Hints:
The complex is a heterodimer.
Chain A: H1 5-16, H2 23-45, E1 49-50, H3 53-58, H4 62-75, H5 86-93, H6 95-125, E2 129-130, H7 137-142, H8 148-153, H9 161-166, H10 169-197, H11 200-219, H12 229-232, H13 250-274
Parallel strand pairs in A: 1-2
Chain B: E1 2-11, E2 14-24, E3 29-34, H1 40-48, E4 55-60, E5 63-64, E6 75-78, H2 90-101, H3 106-115, H4 131-143, E7 149-153, H5 161-176, E8 180-184, H6 188-194, E9 197-202, E10 205-208, E11 216-217
Parallel strand pairs in B: 3-8, 3-9, 6-7, 7-8
Antiparallel strand pairs in B: 1-2, 1-4, 2-11, 4-5, 9-10
Helix pairs in contact in B: 2-3, 2-4, 3-4
Amino acid sequence: MKRLSLMRSELTRWLRSDKQMLLAVTLIYSTSYILLPLREISAYFRESLNLFEGFLTLLGNGFSMMVVVLVYLFLIIDYPDLTGNALFVIARLGRKRWLRNQLAFVYLTSAFYLLAVFLFSLLLTGDLSFVANGWSNTMRQLLTESNADLRTQNMLAVLHESIQNYYRPYEAMWKSTLLMFLQITLFGQLQICLTVRFNKLAAVFVNLLIVSAGALFWNARHWAQWFFPISNATVGWHHAAFFNQEIFPLWGSALYLIAGNLLLLLYSGYCAKRCDFMLGRN
Amino acid sequence: MITVQNLQLTIKKTEILKGISVTFEKGKIHGLIGRNGSGKTMLMKCICGFVRPTAGTVIVAGKHIGKDCDFPESVGIIIETPGFIPYYSGYRNLKLLADLNRKIGKEEIRAAMQKVGLDPDLKRHVRKYSLGMRQRLGLAQAIMENPDLLILDEPMNGLDKEGVADMRQYLLDLKAQGKTILIASHSAEDISVLCDTVCEMDKGVLTPLEGWASAETGA
């Protein structure tokens, strides 16, 4: 644990930071567009929900995906912290250990962030939900032809059809969460590495470029969407909605995100060796 | 001993350091003077390993900084205004730093704070510290692990008369213990009281100052 002592203190500082207010953006978004509409639909059909449906719906569409990723990026925008006591810390830890601590910080904050969003979805829909490994009648009925209008009115609250058709809730849950986690850590690591190697502005610019280009290609349903993490992290987009047809293999996306994370880990070693620490460059 | 050979640093086409060669002997206090922006801090950052020079080498205690090690192994640093976590007490800030490499325990931290005139039991958060108290805390973090080399950029900033006198005496005591100290200061009095050798930095060029037992420079 000695090696990760900085990560612990950074995490404490992050949890106490005013920036945590930004978490409210994700929570308000998911409440307004997903969780409350789901509650209303559930009441309308007089059916319960599956415990994971709220969270899976959030991770299952492009708009929500962008909100979740962007809010996380803004939550960690002050990191790596190159102000204050940073020089004292870097001198004691060494370049590589310091950067490894920053990357560990990214992994832990990603997990915290997803956990907070998940717990919030439980809080808002838990009382109407069951835990069995099957989709709710609410979601099934929502997909029927007669409820097309309801679907259109609550577009963001509809769980992607292909998820319901290809997976059961538990499997969808762990696969979606894992891919989302890998996507967030990819962006987080990129932010840390580019800030250290170049500067904060370059890091933010590159991340925003990747998110928007990914969203653009996804919106255009262009094959190039699979070059970007946002499509690879969305389980539902890997299959055509009602046909037994795979658009892109899920293992391919998992491989893409894992490889991306590993490459950034390697790149971080190079960044640690090559960077200059100018206090206040943050 | 610190040996700097033909050190050059160029940032965005601006030459910050122009082929500096100098040797700072062990067990002495070496002074660096010069105008703001003359390159003193950058030279110190290169010696500490925070900034990689464009060309040239820095060797501290026989180790090539950037090749054999990232940073000098036993060094205490104050560069620019010392920063701390504002919502922790002084002691807690130092404890946090000490825990990073676990060379020292609570007693050494307390002793370092007392040496610079700070009360380790003071619960006040650092954000409520005066500039002088922060400077003292900065010095405490630099000395708490009993390093062989101290690199101090304007360590007297913000200190009152009494504080300056204490600090000077403390630095002289450290020298008597065989520590090497490299100090940058705008105060002629600090330099004259403390330093065995003095070099002046002007526009990235380092020259030994007449009338002092000079550091060996390549100038």
